[in-house]
Design brief:
3-stranded mixed sheet, two-stranded antiparallel sheet
Length: about 575
């Protein structure tokens, strides 16, 4: 997925898959603890400032993962965790389909052979993971009924009933057709082998997973919060620390979210009145505007094309203005793509994927375009500023292009830093004048902020305040005016990844606070471009490490007192 060279990896890896068994998971946990112990013994005084930053990042991330790991259920890795090994968004049953059809490039006969070797391991990966899932269920870490039901529907949708029509086989057929030096007879043999594997061992494993889910659903609880699982309250505290990289409590985050929702809603009310929208709550008026045909692209191929052109126009508008706020940006460009149909029911509205390190895949801004009606024209600008520029592509693109950094830095997830920058980038676009002459687009910007603030309330509401799933969906839909179906998908994401939804505003508010402090400390000496470079150039890191860096940056730029 990263595009690491074989030299960096330590040998050929095109035919390998991760070990998803219980023993493999225990081995990974043990290795992380061993690494943490080794990191803790490093002499900080002997390190360069950049190495100290790297060490502090690794210490935090490995430590946070170990705290989540100790609960013994679900999965935890470097910056990401869930109490449920298999759910509508995670699991070999879908992860490997996406991986085999998106990330494993087939450009030669050698690649095709390696792809088939991997395909033969998919059923074992599903089996090993299913055993872990069954063990967690037996020990009480069962996903809520609604999550199990959605997972079952997703599994059934990917179960190979006609192997030749399965996404993996279709991908293989298309990829082989692009390779000129493979004889037709060999192509037929390769495809027949893929069909046999998918329709045989893999199909059987899908059916076994269906049975597990069907058996678990009647016994599952309706309550969506992780609090109902053993040590659930402590798990949530540990997950919040892993995702937000702060020590903020659920109550503090909940109250911060409520205050932000109230403040942003007040601004939106004033703007809606300016626009002649007077009847109903803020959420109701936003919903009315979002279904107004005057602001929608036709739900046709032509409408989709027009929507993509609009997004490209927004990116072209901001790119020449970036030099006012950022000193150095990435060399690589970002491509706009429509998210694969197979993931549209569970994918977020839009998401960014950084370029492969070997240059085999460009950076992509992926839009979940089930329908153009999901995207009123006035929402697209802020979405693009978040996903592309000055948001994720600027931050992640720079991180990918950094040289001489440890491979581990590519394997760590830093949602609070990355998503915090993405939301802060929406603020930057506002400062650059994106909405000066477009009040509806300003409304889209404020709605995006409102959504992030409401996430704080809902995530903590579910996992700390014991909200029901219906209560959470209604709050999100009523508050933001966003479509109820889309908010149901959002809520299920928060159920599956406790704490993750809090990372966005935790990161944004930290960056904004650091900027305010730096401005006050430096006065006329404050340089906004240099401040942003100090945030972005070292790459993603936990918020406490970022904070220490900025404090040092401020100290280094303070005028020194004249010598007497």
């Amino acid at each position: 997925m990263l595009g690491l060279s074989q030299e960096t990896f330590g040998g050929p890896y095109a035919s390998l898959l991760d070990d998803r068994t219980m023993s493999g998971n225990q081995k990974a946990r043990g290795l992380r603890l061993d690494y943490l112990g080794q990191l803790e013994r490093i002499n900080r005084a002997a390190l360069t400032p950049d190495s100290v930053r790297q060490l502090d990042t690794l210490l935090f991330v490995y430590g946070a993962a170990a705290e989540v790991d100790r609960h013994g259920y679900g999965y935890a890795n470097l910056g990401w965790a869930s109490p449920y090994v298999i759910n509508p968004f995670d699991g070999a049953y879908q992860d490997l389909v996406k991986f085999m059809t998106t990330y494993h490039a087939i450009r030669s006969r050698k690649d095709a052979d390696a792809w088939l070797v991997r395909l033969k391991q998919v059923d074992d990966a599903m089996l090993g993971e299913r055993r872990r899932f069954e063990t967690d269920i037996a020990n009480g870490a069962t996903p809520p009924r609604a999550i199990l039901q959605r997972t079952l529907e997703k599994v059934r949708g990917l179960t190979p009933h006609n192997a030749r029509e399965h996404p993996m086989v279709l991908f293989f057929v298309e990829a082989l057709a692009q390779i000129p030096d493979i004889p037709e007879d060999d192509i037929k043999k390769l495809v027949d082998e893929a069909v046999s594997i998918v329709g045989g061992d893999i199909a059987r494993e899908y059916r076994e997973l269906e049975k597990v889910l069907e058996k678990a659903i009647p016994k599952a609880a309706d309550e969506p919060g992780v609090w109902k699982i053993a040590q659930g309250d402590q798990y949530y505290l540990d997950a919040l620390r892993l995702y937000t990289t702060t020590n903020l409590s659920p109550d503090e985050l909940h109250k911060a979210g409520e205050k932000a929702v109230a403040d942003i809603s007040k601004q939106m009310d004033e703007l809606l009145l300016e626009l002649g929208q007077e009847e109903g709550s803020v959420g109701q008026r936003l919903r009315a505007l979002s279904v107004d045909p005057a602001y929608l692209f036709p739900d046709t191929p032509e409408g989709q094309a027009a929507l993509i052109v609009a997004i490209q126009t927004h990116i072209k508008w901001v790119e020449p203005r970036l030099g006012r706020v950022i000193g150095t940006g990435p060399k690589g460009k970002v491509e706009i793509r429509i998210a694969p149909q197979s993931s549209q029911d569970t994918a977020p509205g839009a998401y960014y994927k950084a370029a492969a390190l070997d240059g085999s895949r460009p950076a992509t801004y992926n839009l979940n375009l089930r329908s153009t009606l999901d995207w009123p024209m006035w929402t697209l600008q802020t979405l693009s500023f978040h996903e592309a520029a000055p948001g994720h592509h600027i931050q992640a693109g720079l991180a990918r292009e950094r040289t001489d950094q440890p491979v581990l830095s590519y394997l760590i997830s830093n949602p609070a830093f990355a998503e915090g920058w993405g939301v802060y980038a929406e603020d930057l676009a506002n400062e650059l004048g994106a909405y000066e002459t477009d009040r509806l687009a300003k409304l889209g910007y404020l709605q995006s902020l409102l959504f992030r603030a409401a996430r704080l309330v809902v995530d903590t509401g579910i996992h700390s305040k014991k909200w029901t799933r219906e209560q959470a969906i209604s709050y999100l839909a009523d508050t933001t005016g966003l479509p109820r179906e889309r908010m149901a998908n959002e809520v299920d994401r928060y159920i599956v990844w406790p704490g993750q939804a809090c990372a966005y505003m935790a990161g944004r508010e930290t960056i904004r606070r650091l900027r305010t402090e730096a401005t006050q400390a430096l006065g006329e000496q404050f340089d906004l471009k240099a401040f942003h470079d100090a945030i972005l150039q070292p790459g993603p890191r936990p918020l406490p490490v970022l904070e220490a860096d900025i404090h040092e940056w401020v100290a280094s730029r303070r005028p020194q007192p004249a010598a007497e």
